[in-house]
Design brief:
Length: 485
């Protein structure tokens, strides 16, 4: 989800620019207004598209404009993104939609930045000072459908009583003699009890090379069920870095990886070490040690190593919700083609890659062409030429566990960096993930402008002799002519 500062004209631009960096947001303004990230043609159409795309919208405009543009599309409050009306002088931030999906919190943050006021109107926040369906970071609400009816009872004077765990954020509506039970636990709870699951569980995974992902998933599901543990309490999965490219482990999502040395440092807390495992990977434990390493020094191993035919799993629990993950993510290198340069000619997939990358690598001009999507990504600009240096730099950044966008003009695989990246990786194998996202190539754009010149079989030949001898180019041109493309 992106955060969009939506303006109708240049008068709102000073405040929008002031908030852009503080909120890691983009500024969207009408055609003709300079200094914005994205220009639009029609305000109501653009607002509707942003809303349906799930983006948080801060409209520096009248609330009525936002209501008229978005209202017809506001059909499900459980999934609606935040929508906030902000006066151009910053005095008032009014959450219109998604109050408990981040709008109230965002409005309060804006008010703090502008020394203004957050006009929060949701009854639970105003009267009770809390929102049952918006727990603090590190907690997940299991049965949110109960929140509305319980909030109504709280507004009528009833109080909560905690059956398990602790919920300090609900202290103002909690009483030892309360009639409404709630639980804060990593264990499965009664379906009729409002339950918050703290993100305290770390799942350690080990497996043989080539293990079927379904075997790991089945082992995980069976282990959680056997020990009565809630999936919603899983903070992360963890394994040894030798398994960064193992399909069965990568399929679990954002796995945290640890070196052999880091896993060996957990040996004193491991319960079921294996000399066979030590001989294979250099440490006596993968699943148990990885779970403990990810959960932190004060964690306890609550489920020792469980085995299937080719996989192992162990579960450690931290004393409190894990808000900052340990270990390292698998590096990701996404080679993206931004097309001819204009934002409207860029694919949504490429735009998403640019938004979610930690770093951009590329020829400086290409990075400038994508500046409408730049927020806090680290830029690694290179001069024209030196393509191999550029690719190596991107690969090395990805090896550090970062998410890299290697930015190319046109299509990333046509006279661009994709082939060179794969050539380098083939020479020097590593475990990073690599994706190629295509763009509109110059020859496609030229054909479209000229009138469908490539409507049938066609052939592309580069006339550059920087990497290809001119004699070879002549042979290819002759062959293409003989082929009657």
């Amino acid at each position: 989800m992106r955060t969009i500062l939506f303006i109708l004209g240049p008068s709102a631009l000073p405040l929008a620019k002031r908030l852009r960096g503080l909120l890691f947001a983009e500024i969207h303004g009408p055609d003709g207004v300079e200094g914005v990230n994205v220009n639009y043609a029609k305000a109501t159409t653009h607002l509707a598209e942003l809303f349906m795309g799930g983006h948080a919208i801060i409209g520096l405009c009248a609330a009525g404009i936002l209501v008229r543009a978005i209202g017809p599309h506001a059909t499900d409050k459980t999934v609606e993104p935040p929508v906030i009306a902000l006066s151009e002088n910053g005095d008032y931030a009014v959450p219109l939609l998604g109050g408990h999906h981040g709008a109230n919190e965002l409005a309060s943050k804006i008010a703090e930045l502008t020394s203004g006021h957050a006009a929060i109107t949701t009854a639970s926040d105003v009267v009770l000072g809390v929102a049952l369906d918006e727990p603090p970071k590190g907690y997940a609400l299991e049965n949110g459908h109960l929140a509305k009816s319980i909030t109504a009872r709280l507004l009528n004077g009833e109080r909560l009583v905690i059956q398990a765990g602790a919920a300090p954020w609900l202290a103002s509506v909690t009483d030892a003699k309360g009639a409404i039970p709630i639980a804060v636990t990593s264990r499965l709870a009664d379906a009729d009890t409002l339950t918050y699951h703290p993100k305290t569980l770390c799942i350690g995974i080990g497996c043989e090379r080539g293990t079927d992902p379904n075997e790991v998933k089945t082992l995980l599901d069976e282990t959680l069920a056997e020990h009565g543990l809630a999936k919603a309490s899983i903070s992360c999965f963890a394994s040894i870095d030798l398994k960064e490219d193992e399909a069965a482990i990568v399929a679990l999502g954002d796995v945290r990886f640890f070196t052999t040395k880091e896993l060996n440092s957990e040996s004193s807390r491991v319960q079921r070490p294996s000399e066979i495992v030590r001989a294979e990977v250099g440490t006596p434990s993968v699943a148990e040690a990885a779970a403990l390493a990810a959960a932190g020094p004060d964690a306890k191993l609550i489920v020792p190593k469980q085995k299937s035919r080719r996989a192992t799993i162990a579960i450690a629990e931290a004393a409190s919700p894990i808000l900052s993950l340990l270990g390292r993510s698998r590096g990701m290198l996404q080679i993206v083609g931004i097309g001819p340069g204009a934002p409207e000619l860029r694919s949504p997939a490429v735009t998403k890659c640019l938004q979610h990358a930690t770093d951009w690598v590329g020829y400086g001009l290409y990075l400038d062409l994508a500046k409408d999507q730049h927020t806090d990504q680290v830029l690694h600009a290179f001069p024209l030429g030196g393509e191999e240096d550029r690719c190596r730099h991107a690969i090395n950044l990805a090896k550090q566990g970062k998410r890299i966008a290697l930015v190319c003009s046109g299509d990333a695989a046509i006279y661009a960096m994709a082939a060179l990246v794969y050539e380098l990786v083939d020479r020097e194998p590593n475990r990073i993930a690599i994706e190629v996202h295509p763009g509109i190539s110059a020859f496609q754009m030229a054909s479209a402008r000229a009138g469908a010149l490539i409507g049938h079989d066609f052939c592309c030949i580069s006339l550059s002799d920087l990497l290809t001898p001119w004699e070879t180019i002549e042979q290819r041109v002759t062959a293409a002519a003989q082929g009657d493309f």
